[in-house]
Amino acid sequence: MRYAAEIDDETFEEYESLGVSPTQVHRPKGDHREAVLTLSSQLADELSKNGKYSCDGRQPEPAAAN
To answer: From residue 16, how far is each of 30, 37, 54 by CA, in Å?
Structure first.
């Protein structure tokens, strides 16, 4: 799967390896829970790496020009 240019294709490999998608209603609830927790953790890691969002979800203020 291809993601935005700022995110490496490998970022969500762990989530994708679970083989659970939101449309698979026949899968156990525990499988969906694990997939959601994995995906949210990977999203949080990626957002914190590129520095576009702070811990509270707001975008950081741009650096002041000297």
So the answer is: 16, 13, 26
CA dihedral 7, 11, 13, 16 (to 10 degrees): -60
Instruction: In whole angstroms, give the CA distance from residue 59 to residue 65.
Output: 18
Q: What is the pLDDT of residues 11-50, one digit of tens each?
A: 889 989 999 988 998 999 999 999 999 999 988 888 777 6
Q: What SS3 class is residue 26? A: coil
Tokens of 8: 């490496």
Contact in structure between 13 and 46 (CB atoms under 8 Å): no
Q: Taking the CA of residue 56 as centre, how many other CA atoms within 13 Å lie in the half-sphere pointing to its CB? A: 2
Q: 54 Cβ partners below 8 Å, 6+ apart?
A: 60
CA 57, distance to chain mean position in Å, is 13
